[in-house]
Amino acid sequence: HNEYLGHCLQPQISLSIIPMSCNKDNDWQHFKWASEDQIVNMGTKRCLAVTSRTSLAPLTLSPCNKTSELQRWVCKNETLLALRDENLFLQPGSGWKDNVILSQTISTKSVWTVYGTRNGLCSKGYEALFTLEGNSFGAPCVFPFKYLGKWHAKCIRDGDTNAQLWCGTTADVDEDSLTGYCPVDVDQDDSFWTKNHWTGDLYQINPNSALTWHQARKSCQQQNAKLLSIKELHEQTYLIGLTSHLDTDFWIGLNNFDVDSGWEWTGNQPFRYLNWAPGSPSPESEKICGLMQSNSGRWVNNKCDEKFGYICKKDNSSVDVPVIPTDGLKPIKCLDGWVAYAGHCYLLNRNLKTWKNALLYCRKAGGDLISMHNIEEYSFVISQLGYNPTDLLWIGLNDQKTEMYFEWSDGTPVSFTKWQRGEPTHVTNVQEDCVIMSGENGYWSDNFCDEELGYICKSKPLLSVLDEPEPVDPTCPKGWKRHGFYCYFIGETTKTFSEAKTFCEATKGFLTSVEDRYEQAYLTSLIGLRSERYFWIGFSDVEQPGTFNWTNGEKSLFSHWNSEMPGQRPGCVAMRTGTAAGLWDVVDCKEKAAFLCKQWAEGVTPPPVPPVTVPPPCLDGWTPSPTRNVCFKNFNEKYLKKTWFEARDFCREIGGDLASIHNEEERRAVAGYGDDFWIGLNTLDPEKGLAWTDGSPVTMYSCNSLFSFADYLFKTIEDGWIAYKSNEYYFSNITVPAEKAQEICRKHGGRLTVIENDDERRFLWKYNTFYGKQHDSYIGLIVGLDGKFAWLDRSPVTYTAWAPDEPNFTNDDENCVVLYSGTGLWNDINCGSLNGFICERHNRSAALPVAPTSPEPLGGCADGWLLFNNKCFQIFGLHEEDRKNWSDARADCKSREGNLATIPSKAVQAFLTVHIRSIPSGPWIGLNAIASWGRFLWTDGSGVYYTNWDKRLPSFSVRHFYCVQSKQITAFSTFSFATDAILSYSGTTISASGYTRYGNSSYSLVSPKMSWDESRKRCKSEKSELASIVDPYVQSFLWLLVLKYNEPAWIGLTSNLTNEKYKWISNRRLVYTNWAAEEPKENIACVYLDLDGHWKTGTCDEKYFSICIIPTEFPEAPGVCPGSKEHHSPWISFRAHCYSFYSILESWPQASCIFLSSTEQTPKHATSTVAIILVLLTLAAAGVGGYVFYRRRRGQPQTLGGFDNSLYNKDRVVIPQKDPESLANNNEERLTSFRGNPS
C-alpha cells in the first residue's frame, strides 16, 4: 500500500504494475517474501522484477529465478524497498495510473506499508517454513513450486490422501518429487503429535529431519509449541519409550546461551531435573545446545549449528496453577522485620545455620525456607531484602529425596530456577543436596547442607490486617514508593511517551532511568505482575536517532533488551510485564502506555562521585578508545583466524573481551582496521535481545536511522547539486581541509553550508548518510577572533546541535565544525583535518560567477621578521633561558599575534632550512598530534600538504602526545599579511656582478645560458668555481635562488672529467646528494639543479644558467690552543680550530674516550672554537688493524641525501616524504648508489 497515493500495487494482464484501489480479497494485490530477497505475487505466482538495473526502469512480474539480479530486493528500512546493491527505490510514476518504477531519489511517494495496518512493507520479512515428515529431511518450503504443471505460492492439500497441507521443497515437484508437510499452529490439529494421557502433554518426534538447534526451535514455534523441556522423572521415562527404537539423537530445549548463568530450558521452563550422560556437559565453549540420546535418553551438549532430529512439546496448560495469588498486589502486613511482596512476607537472616536448622527456624516463625516461582519474585529478593553480592544464603530448593531432582522445601511446584554457570554439579558421591544463592546476580548453586550460612524465610501474611493501607514513606510524595536513593511512581493512566515525560517532569521527576541490574530487578518486581502490557521508561533515540539515551541526561550503563530488540526501528523504550517481565521493547513513541516516574528522595545525600583514576597506557600494538578507558587491538593474522566463540575465549584468556562499540567515534576507530573481524555483539539467547559479551549496554543499532527520510522532498539538478526548499546543496565525494572545502564551494558560486534549524540539519545528515560517502562533513561554522562561533556568511548563530561534550576546543586549535555522519550532530575540529564538506547556495538555475576579490592591501614585516611567500617568520629562543616547550612556545607566538610556523610546501621548507643552519637544534613548528591520535595537523588549521619526516618518524608505538620538532628549544613564529613584494621573477638575464654570502662561501647565479664548460670558464674568470652542494642548507639556499629566477643552473658535479664517477670539481667528497628519480641517468654527463630542487644529468653542451661559488678562507680566531699535558700529544693551531694527532692504534669508541678525557681536563680557553680530534692511522703502525679498517670502509655504501639537522651519519639515511602538491617531488624517496673511492 502506498501511503502517498492511497492505493495498492496490482499487476496488469501485461504483467506491468500500477497503483490501484485496494481490495483485501484480490490475490493479485497480495505479495509475500518467498526468500531473503525475492517477493512473489500470490495471484500470478510470479516474482517482483524490473526490466533493468537503471533509474526509471518499470516494475514487472517474471517467472521466479533465484539467480536473477533483477528479482533481488532489499529493505533499506521498514518502508523503503530497493533493488539489492543499488540505490534504486520503488516509487510510483508521475501519475496514479502510471507504471511503478525505480527511482534514484526518495520522497513521501517511496513509503510502502501493509494495507490496513501501520506496519511497513518490510516489517514482515521472510520466514522459512520447515516441513514435517515427507522426504526432504525437514527442508523449508520453496514458493512458488510447480505441481502437475501448475504453480502454487502457498501450501496445498491437492493429492494428499489425508488432505494435509504440504509443499514442495524445490521449485519443481514434478521433476524432483521432494515434498514435506507444512506446520500448522492450530492447537486442535493433533496430526503428527503423540499424547501422554497421564499428563495431557503432546510430543512431536522428528527423527528424519536434519535441522540446526535454532531451526528446530523455529519449527516448534511455527506449530505453537516449544522444543522439548523435561522437568519430571516420569516424563523422561515416557520419552525413552517413544525414542529408544530410533537410531538418532534429538535436539531438545536445553541451552547455555547466558554466559553468566547455567544450563536452562527454552520458554523459561525450570531446570530442576538433571540427566546428563557421563562426561557431559563437555567444556567446549561452542557446545551450548542440548541433545537427547535416543537409546538411553541421556543428555549431551553439542554445537548449535550441527543438524539433528528434534522433539517439540505442547504443555497441557490446564495443570499449571499459579503460585502467586491473584490478589498479590494488595497491601499486606507482616511481622516486624519481615518485608511484604505479592501476598507473602520475607526475612533475610545472616545468622549462620545449617540448611536443616535454617529450615527449622523459618518453620518456627510460621514460614519456610524461601521458594521463588517467577522472575518478579526473584527480582524482589535481590533488590528489596538488602541482598549483598557477598552473601551466601540458603533457599528451600534441594534434592535430598531424589538425587538430581530438585524440590522446594515448602512443597510448592518448581516453576522457576536461576542457576550459576556450571551449576548444579552432578558429580557422583558428592552430597551437595541443598541450594544457596550468592554472587553479584544472586544466582543459585548446590552446596553441602551441613555448612553454616545465612538464609531467607518466606511466610504467609497476617490475615487479620490484610486490608490495611500500604505505609507511606515520608521522604517520597504521596503515592510514590521508596527504593534506595529514589522515589518511584507508577503512572497507571496511559499516555504517549512525550506526555508521560512531561507528566514526570511536572512532578519534579523524570521518566525512570535504570542504572544497574539491581534497579532493574526492583522495577521488574514493581510492575512485572501488573495487567498492563507496557510501562514507558526514559530511554529513546528521539534526540539522537540510532543511539539510545536517557531523557534525564544520565550516561547509559545498563540495558535489558527483549527478544529481537532494539531492532532497526527508531522509537521509545517500554518495559514489558507478564512472561517477558522487565525486558525492554522499542515501541512507537505515539503509542499510549503506563509509565514509571523517578525522583530523588527528599533529604537524601547523593553518594560521592568516585575519584577519577588515570588508566594505565595501552600496551604496544593496542589503540586507545577515543571516549572510554579501554584499548582495542585487531588480531588479523591469517593464523589467528577463529570462530566467534574461539575469538571470545582468546580475548578473555589474555585479560580482555571481544570489542564493544558505544558511539560513533569508536565505530570509526575500529572501522579503520579494514578487515572483517568479530566483535562482542550477539543474540545468542533467542529469548533476549542484543547484548555485548563484556556486559556493557547496547545503546546503538546498526541502521542508518533513515526511516523518516522519505518525508523530505528534494530534486537533483545539474553538476551534482540538489534542491531542497529554498536552497541548493552539494555533498562532496572527497575529503579535504576546511580551506580547500571553502575554496571549492566558492568556485561553484556557493559557500560552506549554514544550518538554521533542526529540519535542515536532519535533511543534510540523512542525505549524506544515504547518498553521500558518509564522511564527516565541514559546515560553515568557525571560531571567530573573539573566540566565539560564527557562520562564515556572518549570519547570527540561532541554532546549534552539538554532540555530547562538544565543543571542547581540544588543544586550543579546533576552530572549524563538522557534521558527524553517524549522528548528524556537530563537533569542533582542527581545520586542517581531512573531511567531506557540504556547500550551499540559494536556488538558481546555474551557479553564479565568483565575485572578484578586492586587491590585497600593501604590507610588510616588522623589524626582525623574515619575509617569504607573503608571510613573516622569526626564530625565538636562541638563548638557553628563552627556550620553551611546545605549548609555551605556541602561546608566546600567539601573544605576538602569530602562531608556530606552518610549512605548506617544499619551498617554505627550504627557506626555513636556510635560516636554521646556525641554530644549535631544530625549532618547534606547529605540527602536532596532540588532539588527533595518529594524524599530525598544523595548529593554525592549515591543511597538511607537505611533510619532510625523518626516515623512522612519525612513530606511534606508545601512547604519547606528539609535537614537531622533538626538542624543547627554539620556536618559529609566523603570521600572515598582505604584501606587494614579488618573490618570483621570470626574467631571462641577470647581472653578473655581486655574490651573496651564505655560510663560509659566497654564491652567484650567472646568466646568460651556457654549456657546462662555458659556465665553468665564466666562474673561473671571476676567480670562482662551479658550486659544490655539500649539505641540505646549501641545497636549500641555492634552490631558492634558482626558484627566484625560474631557471635551472649548472653545478660543479660531473662524471665527464672523472672516469665516469660523479665527483665535485672542487674535490669535495660526495657525501650529500639530492638526485631526482632514476638519476643519474648517464655514465658521462654534467649535473644541473632543476626548478623542482632535484639534481639532474644532461649532456654537457646543454644551455643553462650557472651557479658560481667563492669559498671563504677561515679566519684565524682569537685565543690559543690548550697546553700540552702529560700523556697527551700537543695541540696545533690551524685557522679557527685546534688539532692533536695520536699515532697509537685505537678503535673508534676508544679514540672517542681519549677525546673526552682530554677535554674534561682542559680548562676553559679563550678561543670560541670547538676543538676537534682528528685520529689518524700512521702508515708504519697501522698494520693488520688499519688494513681491516680500510677494507670495511671500502665495503660500505656511500651516504646519500636527505634533510636532517644532525651531522651526516652513514647509518642514518633520511628520505624526505613526497610532496603532494608537486609531481616533481614524487620520487624523492629513491636511493642511488655510486661507484668510487670511499675516501
Give a quick precis of the structure.
The chain is 15% helix and 23% strand.
Walkthrough of the structure:
Pfam families: CysR_MRC2_N, fn2, Lectin_C. Residues 136-184 form the Fibronectin type-II domain. Its main location: membrane. With 1239 residues, the chain is of the alpha+beta class. The protein has eight domains: 1-124, Trefoil (Acidic Fibroblast Growth Factor, subunit A) (Trefoil); 193-314, Roll (Mannose-Binding Protein A, Chain A); 329-459, Mannose-Binding Protein A, subunit A (Mannose-Binding Protein A, Chain A, Roll); 481-600, Mannose-Binding Protein A, subunit A (Mannose-Binding Protein A, Chain A, Roll); 628-692, Mannose-Binding Protein A, subunit A (Mannose-Binding Protein A, Chain A), CATH 3.10.100.10; 722-842, Mannose-Binding Protein A, Chain A (Roll), CATH 3.10.100; 866-950 and 960-975, Roll (Mannose-Binding Protein A, Chain A), CATH 3.10.100.10; 996-1110, Mannose-Binding Protein A, Chain A, CATH 3.10.100.10. Helices cover 15% and strands 23% of the residues. The protein is built from 17 helices and 67 strands. The strands form 17 sheets. Strands 43, 44, 45, 46, 47, 48, 49, 50 and 51 form a nine-stranded mixed beta sheet that branches. Strands 15, 16, 17, 18, 19, 20, 21 and 22 form an eight-stranded mixed beta sheet that branches. Helix 13 (906-915) packs across helix 15. The longest helix has 17 residues, at 1179-1195. Residues 703-708, 845-854, 956-962, 965-969, 975-992 and 1155-1239 have low confidence and may be disordered.
